[in-house]
Amino acid sequence: xxxxxxxxxxxxxxxxxxxxxxxxxxxxxxxxxxxxxxxxxxxxxxxxxxxxxxxxxxxxxxxxxxxxxxxxxxxxxxxxxxxxxxxxxxxxxxxxxxxxxxxxxxxxxxxxxxxxxxxxxxxxxxxxxxxxxxxxxxxxxxxxxxxxxxxxxxxxxxxxxxxxxxxxxxxxxxxxxxxxxxxxxxxxxxxxxxxxxxxxxxxxxxxxxxxxxxxxxxxxxxxxxxxxxxxxxxxxxxxxxxxxxxxxxxxxxxxxxxxxxxxxxxxxxxxxxxxxxxxxxxxxxxxxxxxxxxxxxxxxxxxxxxxxxxxxxxxxxxxxxxxxxxxxxxxxxxxxxxxxxxxxxxxxxxxxxxxxxxxxxxxxxxxxxxxxxxxxx
Length: 377
Fold this sequence. Notes:
It comes from Actinoplanes digitatis. The protein is of the alpha+beta class. The chain folds into two domains: 6-175, Aminopeptidase (3-Layer(aba) Sandwich); 191-370, Aminopeptidase (3-Layer(aba) Sandwich). It has twelve helices and 16 strands. The strands form two sheets. The protein has an eight-stranded mixed β-sheet, with helices on both faces. Helix 1 (21-28) packs across helix 3.
């Protein structure tokens, strides 16, 4: 059959051709493509590439979907692939997927290809398109959000992985009648990628922070203030660091590392948890390495997070809690401008089935303007 050519911004979608085999082999040999496409045979042979180009891709159109080559509109070189499958005609529904070769990344190829195919599909009768992406693939999630796909939930255990287990996938979707443009984000990126006051710098938690977070959250006094007070396993820390960007993009939480601005040394962490978007309320929590305590770093971090939250998000109220015995944490919050509001009895789970009381503090934007709170530690 003749595959229609679909123009896009900086890309052109067309049918696969024999001239694409070498680039298809190079793309499918890329570790990132193999990581997030576990059904892909490894190694992917030339014979399989030729079969894909000659039979598999053209055959997808017979089932109502289709696989397109993403090509450079000037050179016609293969940049990646994008397609629709799992078509449900009576629902007007299909699932969209894509990949981009490493030589074409960083220039908006995936975003442009997804936009072109999405708009084409809506114009040809599709009413709903789903886009499933791995929790540990924030770049793919950004593509979905940039094209107006909203996060709807998690498909648990939907993707068999290469280790014999099953992975969850995030389910994004867009309807033909949705407003054009990017999806709104509850927690935007930090301006310039970080927050700093010249003394401390806050940067997003990353997969490379596993050892630091394991050390920090293995400290006895940090564990004592954890809810529940149990040291996280290594696997849990690995998942937390690997999925931190995903949770941020989903608007659920912003995990940050507190870094000494002069040396670049990680000193602690601080998190913002957007647990009540409907009321505009979020919670913060923080921990510090012993060698860096007493310098006012958590106070500075709390104020930097507060200023960003009030200025850049819909958050109107921040809360934080501390154990009654944790006077140091209470002083941090007071110096950061938070005001004590309540003493909640038996609010938190403790050790051996016991319950702990919680001293609650809160901060609203007006407090920062009227109190003249200083970053003096």
